Structure formats: C-alpha cells, structure tokens
Amino acid sequence: METTVIAIDGYASTGKSTLSKRLATNLGFTYVDTGYMFRVISFLILQKNWLNEKGIDQTSLTHALPQLQFSWQSQSTGEKLMAVNGKVYGEELRTAEVSNLVSQVAAIPSVRTHLLNQQRALSKATSVVMDGRDIGTVVFPNAQYKFFLNATPAIRAKRRFEEMQSKDIPGTYEEVLANVIERDRLDSSRAIAPLKKAQDAIEIDTSSLDVEEVFTLLCQHLGKGV
Ligand code: DC
User: Fold this and answer.
1) Which residue has a Cα nearest atom 9 of ligand 1?
2) Which of 36, 63, 142, 151 is deepest in the core (most CB within 10 A)?
3) CA 66 to CA 68: how far, in whole Å?
4) What pLDDT, in 10s, does the model give residues 167-182?
5) Strands of the chain, DSSP E
6) Where does residue 29 rank: exposed (0-12), middle (13-18), buried (19+ CB within 10 A)?
7) pLDDT tens-digit series, residues 74-94
8) Is the CB of 132 under 6 A from ligand 1?
9) Half-sphere exposure of 64 toward its Cβ, with a 13 Å CA cutoff?
10) Where are the domains of the chain?
C-alpha cells in the first residue's frame, strides 16, 4: 500500500501538535507526536531517579532503552493513542520538570537511535502526520510533504503559559519563556539531528496567525495531493 508522510517540524509551542492532530483527523491519517516519545523517556529518568549531580545515569538508561516499546492503542472512538509498554501517558509529561530535562535527553545518541527506529516502525503501513524537530531532515527525508513552523519566543511562551494555566500546571510566564529559549538553543545546537528546516520544507511563521489561519495555509499547500 502506498502511504503518505506529512512532516511537521519546528520550534516548541508553534502549534505543531494541535495542527498535526487536526490534519491527521481530517485526512484519516495517524498522528505521531514524537515529542511525546522524548518526554516519556525524560519522565522515566525522573521517576527512576537516574538524574543526579553528575547528570543522567546513561548506563542504566542505555540498558533500559531496548525494553521500551512504543505501539498503537486503538480507542473505541477510532483514535489511536501511543502506548509505551502498554501504558498511555498524559499530562504528567507536560510538567516543568520534564520540559526542563527533555532537550538534554533528546541529545543522547542512544535515545535518538532507539526512537528513530520506533518512529519508522510506527509509521509502517499507515499514512502519518508526524510532528517533531528532525522529521523532514532525518526520520523521513523523503516525506511527500514537509512544513517548518516558527514564531517569536515571546509569542510561543505566551501560548504555552496560557495552555499551562488552563490545565492548572504550575509555572510563571518568565519560567516558560526561559525554558523556550533554552530548549531552542539546545535543540538547534546538538550534534545529532539538530532542529533545522529541511531545505525543501515550506516555512510558516505563525507569530501573527491563529490556529485556524495556519490550518488553512497547510491545507492550501497540501491541495488535492493527499
Ligand atoms: O514537541 P515537544 O515540545 O513535546 O518536544 C519535546 C522535546 O523533544 C523538544 O525540546 C526537543 C525534543 N524532540 C526532538 O529532539 N526531536 C523530535 N523529533 C521531537 C522532539
């Protein structure tokens, strides 16, 4: 079966996940949130106390990685949720603690290799909208459609802060802004699969656009091709 990959990369809090989810629903594709995968590993590191003064205990982590299997769990609504060893994670992945650790985790070579294999396996035999940082450059360099979303750090922090407030997740705007800036720096400067626009990706600056307007733009670019 001929499958389609729509890669949506870009900076944190540019609306990637909201837009990708909506596109996937509209097209009948599966939505793959790759940030979730890096967040699950960060959450487990915290839960298992593999973070100490010296940093992340990479020996324990590397040993545990092969046992972390990502799979799809079909809901009665038809929606597919990503499970890790059978468990679906939620808001516990969105805390400031996890957000502050995740870029460090995403720079670890063994983590990236394991997740790259899992991301490709999850997309076999199904058309996907996959969001992340390196989808159009590394995971699926031959994706049929590639987008790269951007917005100013202040706007992205404001969006994230408002989302956290609506979900009662603690944190101040200043802390969120600092996290956004630091994550941009770490994600863009890491040695493996850094955050960057694929040469053939369509870049959209969402600073002055709402979700509806960006969604319309994406659909215009996709046209009748999908
Ligand atoms: O999209 P997000 O904020 O949930 O992503 C969390 C972190 O994971 C982000 O700071 C960078 C990393 N990440 C990555 O390196 N590569 C991906 N494909 C997706 C996320």
Assistant:
1) 103
2) 151
3) 5
4) 888 899 999 999 999 9
5) 5-10, 30-33, 51-52, 55-56, 70-74, 80-84, 128-132, 145-150, 202-205
6) buried
7) 889 888 899 999 999 999 999
8) yes
9) 14
10) 5-222
Structure token pair of residue 125 = 């035999």
91 secondary structure, DSSP code:
G
CB-CB neighbours of 177 under 10 Å: 17
Q: Is the pTM here over 0.85, yes or no?
A: yes
Average pLDDT over residues 19-41: 96
At residue 131, the pLDDT reads 97
Strand partners, 7: 130, 146
Query: Percent of the chain beyond pLDDT 70?
Result: 98
- Token code pair at residue 99: 């957000």
Query: Given this model, what pLDDT does residue 225 score?
Result: 63
Q: What CATH class has 5-222?
A: alpha beta
Predicted confidence at residue 77, as pLDDT, reads 85
As given in the structure block, the two tokens for residue 106 are 């995403």
Beta carbons of 103 and 53 less than 8 angstroms apart: no
Give nearest CA residue, ligand 1 atom 6: 35
Measure 11 CA to ligand 1 centroid, in angstroms: 9
Q: Which two tokens stand for residue 161?
A: 């802060």
